[in-house]
Request: fold
Amino acid sequence: MAKTRPGGLISKPKTGKRDLDSYTIRGTTKVVRVGDCVMMRPSDTGRPSYVARIEGMEADSRNNVKVRVRWYYRPEESLGGRRQFHGAKELFLSDHYDVQSAHTIEGKCIVHSFKNYTKLENVGAEDYYCRFEYKAATGGFTPDRVAVYCKCEMPYNPDDLMVQCEGCKDWYHPACVDMTIEEAKKLDHFVCSECASDDDVKRSQNGFSVSSVADVKVRLLITCCCISVLMLSNVGRTYGVDKNTIFTSTLFPDPLSSSSGIWRVGRKQAPEEISAVSRSVIAQGDLNLLAGLACRLLVCDV
Ligand SMILES: [Zn+2]
Ligand SMILES: [Zn+2]
Reply:
């Protein structure tokens, strides 16, 4: 998209040009330097200010200052237009360069990285962010893909409140999980419905419920009060919790509760095998073994 600016572009002087390090914005004491981001007056006063990064500055013999700029585009100025995930302060760093009179500079602004912007405690009028570069001719973006969140599978719009599930760590829009923003703000903890139902299954089966021989799937949860450092440092490898090698399956942190020390036995082990071993342990009353390891063995049917 071609951008136009008010007239007053100084015709190129034949001699006496010199590069400038800084320029004081007319009518202010604010100094801008190469590399700074600035707001520039649009030719159409009904439009929001343009945002640009100053790439260079030079003055002619009559001290008229010109700035070489690289434009930031607002989402609505891009070929694809504004999308739902674009924030109000989002800008795209374009490949569109221009030369303008320094007189059109209205003020300075800051274009943050996306990460830094999301960490701002207060967003001022001069704060913007950029997470994409934009090719003005083709409408292409770099990067061309971005992480998505929530059930709606949308990229993060920092203007929208989201809540993080303590289980799966995904982020959710309150509206997508049947909550109002007010309700979401009051939450101390949030667990998404999927993680909550998984949790219910676990809770209802939490116990030494020795089940029938016809177990199809058996899950072992080993809740360790003080699981050995060795075990923690061998995540993903095969080992047993005791020297008789009762369990030979791969252990990995339970994604639902790794923080509380619950580990899930890998599913590669034949369910019948786990079931038989578990029952034999309990039948023998050999829990001292596990108690010695400060472990609690739970046999859960799923
Ligand atoms: Zn959503
Ligand atoms: Zn979840």
User: Anything to note?
Assistant: The chain has three domains: 18-142, 147-204, 207-301. The CA atoms of residues 95 and 135 lie 6 Å apart. The mean pLDDT is 71.
